[in-house]
Amino acid sequence: ILGGRTSRPGRWPWQCSLQSDPSGHICGCVLIGRKWALTVAHCFEGRESADVWKVVMGINNLDHPSPFMQTRYVKSIIVHSRYNRAVVDYDISVIELDSEIEVTSYVRPVCLPDRGQVPKPDTYCYITGWGHMGNRMPFKLQEGEVRIISLSQCQSYFDMKTITSRMLCAGYEAGTIDSCMGDSGGPLVCREGDGRWSLYGLTSWGSVCFSKVLGPGVYANVTHFTEWIERQIYLRTFNL
Amino acid sequence: CISTSHQPCSPGCYGNASCDPRNVNCSRCEPISLELCMNLPYNSTSFPNYLGHHSQKESSVSWESSLFPALVQTNCYKYLMFFACTILVPKCDPVTQQKVPPCRSLCRSSKERCESVLGIVGLQWPEDTDCAQFPEEGQANTTCLLPDPDVDECSPSHFKCRSGRCVLASKRCNGHMDCDDDSDEEHCGCKERGLWECPGNKACIKHSMICDGFPDCSQLEDEKNCSVCNDNELECNNHECVHRTLWCDGRKHCSDSSDEWNCVSLSNSTPSVLMVYKTASEYQVCADEWNSQLSGLACRQMGLGVSAATVETVLDEPGQPGRRRWLHVHPDWSQRNSSALQGLLEKRGHSCHSRKKVALRCTKDECGRRPAARMVKR
């Protein structure tokens, strides 16, 4: 996260780290159920096998395992069949964990938005991750507050890329607070009126975040995929 | 070279040296996926490129991949895009697995003709493109790339004006004249652009998106009339035909499993009556032999958490308008090889003895709550 701040342990209990040996943290992910997490499809490019991945939850400092940490191996990976790596469209995948997590103060799922429920432009939401900070990679989880940007306004920043309805933009023209390399797959969450947090985006792509070309970040639009996510979980759970 | 198992590198990569994950020079040829450069006279590349990017993804979001296409529109040099692609996605020699650079003359021509254009808007030519790093054409023991005279100067992301100038494809048919000869606003139907027009909102979509199981038109026209099923069949989401009796039987018959979607639901009434869609008809469930385990299963299947309460309510009176049929719990439900509720229910000849139907109260799993910040006395 660029321009963010170090977050308090337990503040984002749905944030998880998708790890693979020997590199360790590769991407962020988001817990959406006791046995299910979401991340973006591009995290699995060249590494589609579930066996090489594990999901670490309940940590704040990647370098210091916490007593609240839970680790699960990945049972299966469901990459959206329409994922297009050239234009980074349909950038979403569902992760099935090998066993259920224990819900604690530090590890608990986020809500999925209802079908058709999208955040209004100019709403302020939060992004989190262990991605690049512009000058270094952090050990501690970073958080940043970003503003939702309309698709038409977002398209004006990315002349060479098509912003599709499967994408959601958030951030600032000057790129002051933005997601960056290593945050991919992590959450963009907004607080609802009842105090719950819902997952509206998954960090997907943007400009090279520590270059001179800035602009908002582009996130996978979770609302577009709510039905697809529910179906994948249903079909896997009931072996259909 | 991607694992730690010390597999030998490919012959083009330092003979049989063991792979070291830190060895970034250990490159391999890979197919070009950068949209900007898909129409080159070569189709494989290797990284890092001549701008220091380590992957096509990094190239695709780089400053240079925005700069060059914008510069192409100024018509400053016919072969600018070809040059840009030779440094963004350098040609990879399939034999040596090594990069083939552009020739120095191509680099110099691009820079001489286009650098001044950039200067007008206060921008600088990319720093990493020092032409001296590239070989002269005809230099001994080196090969380099020069454009073929008939190389396509506009990338697939661009539209070529009748005048020969390249403008962004997104500017084609946008209502503004972007070509100097206005040719970008001619023949603006989907058909002329090789696309299919949605009848409702007139949006243009690719032909490959028609009948692929994903609606793209606002009124779903691209997914209509995709198959002709018999009267005793229903259409799957991917347009296969499956016999009605197999619909919602707890087993997959459509290859995309869509015959087993949305088989269980709750009515909007109070209490919420359990509705099961089976063999293409909607049923209520008789409360005979129903139990709390099945209530939990039904709620979980609807994505409504595991905690559930069963409420039994009186079946509609015979002869009443809107009377519905019902399903019974299969006597061997616990042994059945189906874990979805619809596979554990069956139609039976006899009536529902209890005259009660199942209604449920499901409690959704908790989500989206953060623990309260701890208070510490100071």
Give a written overview of the molecule:
By secondary structure, chain A is mainly beta. Chain A is built from 2 helices and 13 strands, in the order βββββββββαββββα. In chain A, the strands form 2 sheets. Chain A has a 6-stranded antiparallel barrel. Chain A has a 6-stranded antiparallel barrel with strand order 2-3-4-7-6-5. In chain A, a hairpin with a 3-residue loop joins strand 2 and strand 3. The longest helix of chain A has 16 residues. The model of chain A has no long low-confidence stretch (mean pLDDT 93). Chain B is an alpha+beta fold and 378 residues long. Chain B has a 5-stranded mixed sheet, with no helix packed on it. A two-stranded antiparallel sheet of chain B has the order 1-2. The longest helix of chain B is centred in the N-terminal third of the chain and has 17 residues. The N terminus of chain B is likely disordered. Classes of the chains: A mainly beta (240), B alpha+beta (378).
Largest sheet of chain A: 6 strands, antiparallel, barrel
As residue ranges, the low-confidence spans of chain A are: none
Q: What share of the residues of chain A lie within helices?
A: under 10%
Anisotropy-based shape of chain A? globular
Distance between the termini of chain A: 39 Å
Sheet with most strands: strand arrangement of chain A: 8-9-10-13-12-11
Overall pLDDT of chain A, averaged? 93
What's the tally of helices of chain A?
A: 2
Shape, per Cα inertia axes of chain B: elongated
User: What structural category arises from helix and sheet content of chain B?
Assistant: alpha+beta
Question: Helix and strand layout, with pairings?
Answer:
The complex is a heterodimer of chains A (240) and B (378).
Chain A: E1 5-6, E2 15-20, E3 24-31, E4 36-39, E5 54-57, E6 70-79, E7 93-97, E8 124-129, E9 142-149, H1 151-157, E10 167-170, E11 187-191, E12 197-205, E13 217-221, H2 222-237
Chain B: E1 30-31, E2 44-45, H1 56-60, H2 63-72, H3 80-88, E3 91-92, E4 99-100, H4 104-120, E5 158-160, E6 166-168, E7 196-197, E8 204-205, E9 233-235, E10 241-243, E11 264-266, E12 274-278, E13 281-285, H5 292-301, E14 307-314, E15 325-329, E16 345-346, E17 356-363
Parallel strand pairs in B: 13-15
Antiparallel strand pairs in B: 1-2, 3-4, 5-6, 7-8, 9-10, 11-12, 12-13, 14-17, 15-16
